[in-house]
Amino acid sequence: MGGERRRRRPGLSPAVVGAGAAAAAAAAAALVIWARPRDPTFHLISVALSAFRLNLPVVDVELTLTVHVTNPNVVPIRYSAATVAIFYAGSPLGSARLQAGSQPPRSCRVLRLPARLRGAELAHRAADLLADAARRSMALDAAVDIAGTAQLLWWARRFDVHIDSHVVVDPIFLDVIDQQSHSETHLHLASSSSSS
Predict the structure, then answer these.
(1) Of residues 88 and 30, which shows the higher confidence score?
(2) Transmembrane residues, as ranges (predicted)?
């Protein structure tokens, strides 16, 4: 018995364990950087008049905004419904409704948003609107906050996007003349497990 050699059980050396842990950490960091959410882009393509009702002194206008949305992320996104606030000369003019939805990774989509302009505000701004019509240039501002999730494997990462847009349209033919948009994305650090 004294001459029997004890068999050594195969095991991993601390160097191999350390190298494996470092490789896993590097892979996780690369995955986080690769999948880091990027700001989606929203571009107004066109404005179409849906309804125009004149009940003096109030004008009721309904529009359809056609918006091109790009998801530059490598993961799909889901977003909740939101209201787009529309401003004219700093005053609230109306709103458009963004329905809840989702978008595949690295994709583009065209959305049609119904918008309604406030008749009382239009009547109050009649002189300014007539001057803009004569110049064929009307500046509008829009702002929206969108909440959503970006899905990566079994993690759902929540985010908020705030978008400000400045759009110049021809109030006669409703053509988009110029636009500038700025968006900021806030990524929530706590992730949640996906239920789907």
Answers:
(1) 88
(2) 12-35
